[in-house]
Amino acid sequence: MAPMIIPDDLLPCDGRFGSGPAKVRPEALDYLGLRSDIMGTSHRQAPVKDLVATVQQGLAELYRIPDGYEVVLGNGGSTLFWDMAVFSLIEQRSAHGVFGEFTRKFARAASRAPHLDDPAVFEAEAGGVALPESRDSDVHAWAQNETSTGAAAPVVRHGDPDSIVLIDATSAAGGIDADISETDVYYFAPQKNFSSDGGLWLAFASPAAIERAERIKAGGRYIPEILDFSTAVANSRKHQTLNTPALATLLLLEDQVQWMIDMGGMEAVAARCRQSTQTLYDWAEDRDFASPFVANPEHRSPVVSTIDLDERINAAELIGILRTNGIRDVDPYRALNRNQLRVGCYASVDPEDVESLTECLDYVIERM
Ligand SMILES: *Cc1c(COP(=O)(O)O)cnc(C)c1O
Asked: Which annotated residues bind L-glutamate (predicted)?
């Protein structure tokens, strides 16, 4: 049987709807091409340090970070940051809100560490949200956006005043606003809303978090150098990373941060993402064969929209047809194992392309 062809006039201009890595704006790639002066040059010299400083300043401006907070970065992505927290930021015991695969991975990393007590885990079923509430934990950790389920959680301080709050904002940063003073480390990676490439982690760190890492280190704990938060802070103050960063990743990130500032900052960017995801939630609620996976509208992610389909529609087949027509990566998170669409509506995605996507969905579903 010949593959189903979606008429050209229904197709989005750009068919990339992945939840990470995600669409890179063509203008950012053009910028990358223009910066051949940077590519292939030393990260210990002024031009690359200036690039790092520009990225740090731009991110600080975008999130209006409080006085005393610092923009810290290093190699290894958000996944590395979990192990860094295990070695450098959790003193004795952490508490985790677990409501999907990414929040679970951090809790698991903490539970495996021989030098820590077993973490306190506060769990919600996929599609819900759980915040940690523990009296005897020195770290409270959860994600602002659980990319695996499309559930978003509030960012407000939990736990004792002595406990520090670590927010996984990997897919939230650059798409959802936050009051950074409610957090001690707000960490993320640039391959989602920031439309760059993977491999880097970035964090807004409070004085309390920086002090915590210094105290743990001074206490003599063995900390591998790449997982030493204090070393990352020291390098970041000099606009460097411990080891060689991907310069293309930094250039794409620089371009995206400036694009966001020019758009009007986080308020404007967040509104754009919310418009896109709302289009999908409205579409699903208007169809008898579809429904938003996250039942509570307040927890529906404004950046990653998950839509359940009933058994009459085979999501895998639908996703395959979309893919042959250039609409890519709307697959659900594998481990979730649902008959579902998951659509990344990050900052770079044009809300009009999301409208087109819903038209394509109707077109294909009618004919399946
Ligand atoms: C993508 C993602 C991660 C993993 O990021 P890497 O940079 O690939 O390690 C972690 N947490 C969340 C919430 C994510 O969306």
From this structure: 44
Amino acid sitting at position 136: D
Neighbours of 348 (CB within 10 A): 27
Q: In angstroms, rounded to a whole number, what is the distance separating the alpha carbons of residues 121 and 98? A: 7
Token look-up 């579809």 returns: 290
Of 79, 155, 170, best ligand 1 pocket probe by most atoms within 8 Å of the beta carbon: 170
CA-based nearest residue to 84, from 236, 225, 250 = 225
Radius of gyration of the chain (CA): 21
Length of the chain: 368
Does pLDDT of 211 surpass 80? yes
| CA–CA distance, 50 with 240 (Å, rounded to integer) | 10
**264-287 confidence digits (pLDDT tens):** 999 999 999 999 999 999 999 999
**pLDDT for 290-323, tens place per residue?**
999 999 999 999 999 999 999 999 999 999 999 9
147 is in an annotated binding site: yes
